[in-house]
What does this fold into?
Amino acid sequence: EVQLVESGGGLVQPGGSLRLSCAASGFTFSSYLMSWVRQAPGKGLEWVANIKQDGSEKDFVDSVKGRFTISRDNGKNSVYLQMNSLRAEDTAVYYCARVSVVVVPAAQQPYYYYYYMDVWGRGTTVTVSS
Amino acid sequence: DIQMTQSPSSLSASVGDRVTITCRASQSINIYLNWYQQKPGKAPKVLIYAASSLQSGVPSRFSGSGSGTEFTLAISSLQPEDFATYFCQQSYSTPWTFGQGTKVEIK
It folds into this structure.
């Protein structure tokens, strides 16, 4: 069964740190780009970060740049989100997601890459409060 | 950043109704548009990717259309299990962004 399981959430004081983990199973983890997406209480979805298959490229939403880092260990089929200098506005459920891609030949460039998040974990809750 | 705007924010409908949700992008995104369904307390689930491709296992009553800046998710005959919140999301450029969501409620 294809599965993602997040862990590491909890209550932390403003300015503190947490490290979230996401364990993957049931698919070839090293073949997939991975994402973290969060959802504040009662709010919509916010993409947080991506990491390429080999970890060579990473991308973040501006609000977490310089505070969060993303990494992966393909030998352990896991992706991580290190969150430092946490703020109240980081309070959310954090989801790990697998990113699949459809590659389509194009007339004016080599290919189009259509990315979408097709497998999600159940999420882990991060609460930043004093 | 590309802003995604959904309309309506919520709607009430009956079982068997046809429902459409619109998503507009602040700039052209080709067909880099995905639709997700989320039920309370659960993770999102992808329904449609690349604007109109149905994800495996998703009922055929769901369909997507559009390109450029305007997109539509349609549910041809609403079923009890379809009452949920729906989000669009662009993957044209990072930061990937979501619409604010459309809550589909029972009339």
Remarks:
- The two ends of chain B are 36 Å apart (CA to CA).
- Chain B touches chain A through 27 residues (CB under 8 Å).
- The CA atoms of residues 18 and 76 of chain B lie 5 Å apart.
- Chain B has a mean pLDDT of 97.
